[in-house]
Design a protein that fits this description.
The chain is of the alpha/beta class and about 375 residues long. The chain has three domains: about 60 residues, no CATH class; about 240 residues, P-loop containing nucleotide triphosphate hydrolases (Rossmann fold); about 45 residues. About 45% of the residues lie in helices and about 15% in strands. The chain has twelve helices and nine strands. The strands form two sheets. A seven-stranded parallel beta sheet has the order 5-4-6-3-7-8-9, with helices on both faces. A two-stranded antiparallel sheet has the order 1-2. The protein is globular. The two termini are about 25 Å apart.
Length: about 375
């Protein structure tokens, strides 16, 4: 990626598109479902040219409401997503669904990718369903998932739903991709509710007791309501007010961009109180109320200005992720040029060198390039 001059400042230049990819982008923006499917396949496979496609789509994004559905396996996420899609369609919205499935240890693909989980919406061209591999990423979400959401947004979907793999507290990563996060819990899951304290509790905008017709639903609802109150004011028991919580950022990045409400709209963002609702996904009970709550949260984000800080945080994390990935790829290539990781490990084993020296040999050229670029930027600014 190169750079261009704009108003005296240096601006990164977007990856160039081939003629074929440019035509593919045009077809997607024109509403061609086959083009959408092809683009998401390119994104998931990280095929050559996919970055240029996503970069070209970026300016056409920002209109979709992005909803994350997470929770422990068995909570009924897939059934609820099916009913949500049907309800959104009944009111005239178009829907995109990205279901993040466990990765195959052999191919990296989605183990459950071929299953049919959207039975209520089969044949409806305005519901686009895609099952994707988590590819081992923390929280079950990969960069490919975020890019697929962009493709669905640019295509014109009104609502994009992300259903995560349900890997416990690591699902905190879903908050980096979704505007509104719903955490599903099933009745009688006392241990699961306790686990929420370790991570998922902090990311939920809505908590849902699904399968609420089962025994233990009332107790689970009460436990969640108590936990939400304690989250909002841990030192005041159950008399807590509105919450202003932080989402942990990457451990190496300190506290920068860690807050869900940084910048403009902080005071208003702190006023959202998570709802605790009940649903019976099999029958559709409670789905309408859940959508009303999603709408209320989306309205809150827009009117308070919190959506801007949410986007800023999300894009900051995407930049970090891409930079880490690219630097890692450069380092991997440097390792291969030196005979591969096994050869380097053998040299360390023979006491011919040490891990720190090997790492320095690989990273030093990258560091020199970065420092040289920093000096150039400083000269340009002066």
């Amino acid at each position: 990626m190169g750079e261009t001059e704009r108003d005296g400042a240096t601006t990164p230049r977007a990856p160039e598109l081939s003629d074929g990819d440019a035509a593919l982008v045009e077809d997607l923006l024109a509403g061609n479902h086959r083009a959408l499917a092809r683009v998401i396949t390119r994104i998931e496979n990280r095929s050559p040219g996919h970055r240029g496609i996503v970069a070209a789509l970026h300016e056409h994004t920002g209109d979709a409401d992005v909803i994350g559905i997470t929770g422990a396996p068995g909570a009924g996420k897939s059934t609820l997503v099916d009913k949500l899609a049907a309800a959104y369609r009944d009111r005239g919205d178009t829907v995109g669904v990205v279901a993040v499935d466990p990765s195959s240890p052999y191919t990296g693909g989605a183990v459950l990718g071929d299953r049919i989980r959207m039975g209520s919406n089969v044949g409806d061209m305005d519901v686009f369903f895609r099952s994707m591999s988590a590819r081992g990423q923390l929280g079950g979400l990969s960069m490919a998932t975020a890019d697929a959401v962009k493709a669905l947004d640019a295509f014109g979907k009104d609502v994009v739903v992300i259903e995560t793999v349900g890997a416990g507290q690591n699902e905190v990563d879903v908050v980096r991709t979704a505007d509104t996060v719903a955490v599903l819990v099933q009745p009688g899951s006392g241990d699961d509710v306790q686990t929420l304290k370790a991570g998922i509790l902090e990311i939920g905008d809505v908590f849902v007791v699904n399968k609420a017709d089962m025994d233990g639903a009332e107790r689970t609802l009460a436990e969640l309501e108590e936990m939400v109150h304690r989250r909002e004011s841990p030192t005041k028991g159950l008399d807590g007010g509105h919450h202003g919580f932080e989402v942990p950022d990457h451990p190496d990045d300190g506290e920068e961009d860690g807050s869900r409400g940084d910048g403009e709209g902080d005071d208003e963002a702190a006023e959202w109180t998570p709802e605790v609702l009940r649903t019976v996904a099999n029958t559709g009970e409670g789905v309408a109320e859940l959508i009303e709550t999603f709408d209320a949260h989306a309205t809150h984000l827009r009117e308070s200005g919190a959506i801007e800080s949410t986007k800023r945080r999300r894009y900051a994390e995407e930049i970090r992720t891409l930079v880490r990935s690219d630097v890692g790829a450069l380092a991997t290539a440097a390792i291969e040029r030196r005979g591969g990781i096994d050869a380097l490990a053998d040299a360390v084993r023979r006491r011919e060198t040490d891990p720190y020296s090997v790492a320095a040999e690989i990273v030093d050229p990258i560091e020199e390039c970065v420092e040289s670029d920093a000096e150039r930027v400083d000269r340009d600014e002066t």
